[in-house]
Amino acid sequence: MPSIHALPFDDASIRLWAQADPRATNWPVVYTLEGGSEVYVGETLNMAARARQHLANGERARLERAHVVVDETFHKSACLDLESYLIRLFSGDAARTVLNRNTGIVNAEYYQRPQYQAKFDAIFEELRSRGLFTRSIPEIRNSDLFKLSPFKALTDDQAAATVDIVESLFHDIEAGIESTSIVQGNPGTGKTIVAIYLVKLLADIASQDRDEEPTGESVFDDFFTHGHRDLLASPRIGLVIPQQSLRASIRRVFEHTPNLDPAMVLSPFQVGHSLERFDVLVVDEAHRLSQRAAQAVGVQTRDFRLITERLFGADDHGRTQLDWIEAQADHRILMLDELQSVRPADLPASVVGPLVARAEADARVHRLATQMRVAAGSDYVAYIRDVLSGEDERPQRPPLGEYDLRFFEDASAMRAEILQRDEEVGLSRLLAGYAWKWRSNKDRAAPDIELDGLSLQWNRTATEWIRSKTSRDEVGSIHTVQGYDLNYAGVLIGRDLGWDAERGRVVFRREHYFDARGKANNNIRGISYSDEDLRTFVLNIYAVLLTRGMLGTYVHVVDPELRAALRPYFSSD
Length: 573
Description:
The protein folds into three domains: 134 residues, no CATH class; 213 residues, Rossmann fold (3-Layer(aba) Sandwich); 193 residues, no CATH class. The model has no long low-confidence stretch (mean pLDDT 93). Helix 16 packs antiparallel against helix 20. A seven-stranded mixed sheet has the order 12-20-17-13-16-15-14. It has a six-stranded parallel sheet with strand order 8-7-9-10-6-11. The chain is of the alpha/beta class. It contains 21 helices and 20 strands.
């Protein structure tokens, strides 16, 4: 069992320990330095020497106590792994501000790693008993602060994309030219992770803390130089999040992260209103940027016109929020998946297609393929889209491993199972397409969804619904779950979708679709949307809902004919 030495973080205490234990100067260890609401996690072969370096640094010299983890079986790989593990858990716990950079997080395999990871959990529990953590590992892992933290071990394709983007960015800054880079990927490939990681990385490069020297073990070490810092002198960096709910969650993450600030997390309207240009804008879910159309509230429809007039000199109805981004920032980095556009007001294909083509011509398109969310892998995401589109021959169900994909004939039985999963692992919610009227918006006691003996309401809050106290008893819509992870998702496919037996395909039924802005014509631009147009958006909605569950997805289809048609795809029988 590892031992954890607790001692005051000062030169005299470190020297006394080094005199009593030779491992203080020649043994691989992992340590935490903590004081007040701050913590730093590190690993080293010479704790005494590394402590002296920290004590010479103004930021870390104010930390008060050290906890040094020593184990007879530790080696460099295990220490790097434990260091990364503790950093991620401290970040998700949010009781303390993590002072580390995010470039040292690793996820490398090594001999007997599972046995070491079992030790890591015991180390966590010991540190928790000493007051360093406030929540359990499952509680931390289920939190948005953990899932949206910039302290992540990137996959190979995420790391490659990030390196290429940063290299190109510095080249363009030095050359004095503007640029647009695009990151594409299916749901669950980690576009939001890359966006947050990028902002943290750039902010750290720009910071004046020069104590933490590159280790030579990170692919990003070459960017931590005086020259790169000078190129990012006093930068204006922003992260644009079109969805209100996700924006609020990421602001909380930035509030607890050094070199980041909640004010860096922006809505498109905040970008448009800004009187100062940005050096770099990273845009998550860029496909959700809006074209000119009636907005959620009247003041935003007015502001759309005012911003366009200010930026371009006239109220050009062809301008989109993407034009605002391009006008307000020298460098744009866009996370994009046009198959997740869910409303007619989202960026149209006539804008997205040429945008991607231009970026490809400049070798500025980076594609993510590794599936990080759904345990069943990327084949599951493609399978869901093929099942819903019905354009090709019947897709073959891919191997799903232990992924829990189930089909329910009865909605109440599905809800009971979702509640059971929530008791077991948390983060299990009911979701639905917008196929029921939002009656409770005007009458707080009115049920919205009445089905198979159930009487349920839509989400009562549009901001961070998944974490709300009432979410277990409610049903989430696309507007509250896009961009989030669940452990289990129970999806109600409503009567907005039906089955055309003659054509053998899923069809859209406008009369059962109750998202007013989701089916409204664009009167400002004179665009009308056919049922086939809206079918595309609604299928995108269900594809998003059906790919929220990391461990499992449960499905109930309301329309009897569609239920019979889809049953073979989702049932394990």
